[in-house]
Amino acid sequence: MGIIEQLLRINKNQKLWYYLPFSLFFLGIMFLNWISLRYSAVSTNEIIKMNITKYGKNVNFLITIGPLVFMLIFLIGWVLFVHKQSLLSLTTSRSTVDWKRFLFSFGLWSFVIIGFFIYGYLKDPQDYVLSFKLGPFIVFFIFAVILIPLQTSFEEYFMRGYLMQGIGLATRSRAVALISTSIIFGLMHLANPEVEKVGATIMIYYIGTGLFLGIITLMDDGLELALGFHAANNLVGVLLVTSDWTAFQTNSIFTNINSDSGISPWEYIVQVGIVLPLIIFVFAKKYGWKNWKHQLFGRVK
Q1: How far apart are CA 203 and CA 76, in angstroms?
Q2: Range of 202's domain?
Q3: Using CA of residue 163, residue 167, residue 168, residue 174, what is the dihedral sign?
Q4: pTM for this entry
Q5: Is the pLDDT of residue 129 over 80?
Q6: How far apart are CA 199 and CA 222, in angstroms?
Q7: What is the pLDDT of residues 259-289, one digit of tens each?
Q8: Are 127 and 257 in contact (CB under 8 A)?
Q9: SS3 for 103?
């Protein structure tokens, strides 16, 4: 039984309109935030730099990530008390959460991230400086290890869990749920300073990554792989390297000082078109995925 159908088994009287208040509330906040920044005289990156100057990098990190942590708590409460749905049914179609899946995905993508970083450092060592400072890094490390998994968990529970289930049940189409949540996931990042710096081509990466996360969720009938991947992507990446034009400008080990983005559209295409499909291939072989047509494009029973 798939993760979308799991909800019907748990609660056959589930009311679809229950999905609207929370979804519209969060997406409305994201849209208003983008509008305010789009027409503001001050860019997102300038706001980040002002906060860093005023509060320091670690407090700015808390300001940046804190709202999504609270949204996770809000979402869990909404699911438990309004939908009367268990968190397990939002996480996986299995009888228990498979933490081995989470750890495998986390470890695999961490290995890839570190490999890409080493390649970039050896290729262009002049773009990186060692910015490690023990005291600030330890504080940041504690904050990051606790809060980033909560932040990424909210994005996965909302996008690949809550919203995918809601859209799937409303349209009875796995394909519509997959494609729509992937696009929404990409649009969620429109206000990021990376979009200002790199341009609209970075949406290839955001939407492509959303599609990848949706595929592995539907094929595996659970969020465990997506949760592990997303946590590794944000946590390991931000601990390793930061720059002065990203959403997370932190007390990382290295700082990328390249005044340009240093990333061409082709690198996004390679990651989305080659690297992520290879990760899907590894998962598919390890977990014996079958019936791809139904899992990704079939009707919700």
Answers
A1: 29
A2: 3-297
A3: negative
A4: 0.93
A5: yes
A6: 33
A7: 665 566 677 888 999 999 999 999 999 999 9
A8: yes
A9: helix
Report the amino acid identity of residue 100.
Answer: K
Distance spanning both ends of the chain, measured CA to CA: 10
pLDDT digits (tens, 9 = 90+) for 62-108: 999 999 999 999 999 999 999 988 899 899 999 999 999 999 999 99
**CA distance linking residue 159 with residue 3, whole number of Å:** 13
Of the candidates 214, 247, 248, the one whose C-alpha atom is nearest the C-alpha of residue 229 is 214
Alpha carbon distance 51, 59 (integer Å): 8
Taking a C-beta distance cutoff of 8 angstroms, is the pair 185, 206 a contact? yes
Tokens of 229: 């991947």
Number of domains into which the chain is organized: 1
CB 106 within 8 A of CB 228: yes
Q: Both tokens of residue 217?
A: 């969720």
Cβ-count burial of 144 within 10 angstroms (0-12 exposed, 13-18 middle, 19+ buried)? buried
Can you tell me the distance from the alpha carbon of 294 to that of 288, in angstroms, rounded to the nearest whole number?
15
- What is the length of the chain? 301
Contacts 24+ apart (CB under 8 A), 75-84: 75/22, 75/154, 75/157, 75/158, 75/162, 76/157, 78/21, 78/22, 79/162, 82/18, 83/11, 83/14, 83/18, 84/11
Classify 94 as helix, strand or coil: coil
Question: Distance (Å, rounded) from C-alpha 195 to C-alpha 247?
Answer: 10
Using CA atoms of 50, 54, 55, 58 in order, give the dihedral in degrees to the nearest 10: 40
What is the CB-side half-sphere exposure of residue 272 using CA atoms within 13 A?
Answer: 18
- What are the tens digits of pLDDT across the range 160-192? 999 999 999 899 999 999 999 999 999 999 888
